[in-house]
Amino acid sequence: MSDRNFDGLRDIGLWRTFLAAHRSGSVSAAVRTLGLAQSSVTTQLQALEASVGEPLFMRHARGIRPTPRADELAARLSGPLDALADALGTRPAAESPSVRVGGAAEFLAHVAAPALAPAVADGLRLAVTTGLADDLLEQLRVGSLDLVISAVRPRGRTVPSTPLFDEEFALVASPSLGIEPSPALTQDALVSAPLLSYDRDVPILRRYWRHVFGIRLDREPALVFPDLRALAAAAVAGAGITVLPTYLIADELADGRLVDLRPTEDPPINTLHLVRRPGPMTEGVLAVERALRAAVAHL
Length: 299
What we know:
The chain has helices at residues 12-24, 27-34, 38-52, 68-88, 105-121, 133-141, 203-213, 228-236, 250-255, 283-296, and strands spanning 57-60, 63-66, 98-103, 125-130, 147-150, 161-173, 196-197, 223-224, 242-245, 259-260, 269-276. The chain is α/β, with parallel strands linked by helices. The longest helix is centred in the first third of the chain and has 21 residues, at 68-88.
């Protein structure tokens, strides 16, 4: 008589290990969640891959990366297995999936962190990565991130993307510089003011000059600091002029520490996009999206 496991119930333990590894993104984290030896977790994953007939994870320096087949299986199995664990009272809180979010440090710190704080307090698990949009999108494509707030709209249809928020930019400085704000301000009035830039190539400043003044900016920055919050602090201290997103300096503009040197009804804008990993959306990813959209609605 055949001993074939027709209904798959003998593999419930293996699938539980699979879900722990898929959700945590590393074998060591799955070991801590399950309370098993690392060799046991590795052996179970290998047995499951042999049963499925294809790899479920790719190993890399930061842990393990699920294959598309693994994502599909996780989406189908997580609900039933979680319901079974809940019914038996055996699911530890640590097994809840961690949402891996990437974005610019300034937006994540100023907007995302306070917006997501209530969800984290209620049990949402987050792992945040900061960096440049192109690098973060590549991490998302290979499965290392679940959601990216990107200033770059990804090309093609390989990853789902929706607009989140339009950043508006303003040319600002401390009143101590003595530059008189005016809608008619010309770039000639700024030639002696030091430039504070995110990058040596002055991309944000150059875009502002082209949009507002209609000319190309060809000046070297006096300060290069790859953090917009640091540029805001330097501008408040009187170091020079810079271009910043208005949501980031709303308090400084309101209390007069910074002034908008050229108020305009047509400011340069930059659209931030929510880009998520292909596959079914988890409740955690949906919760992050809801919180972010609610936050930007009040900016």
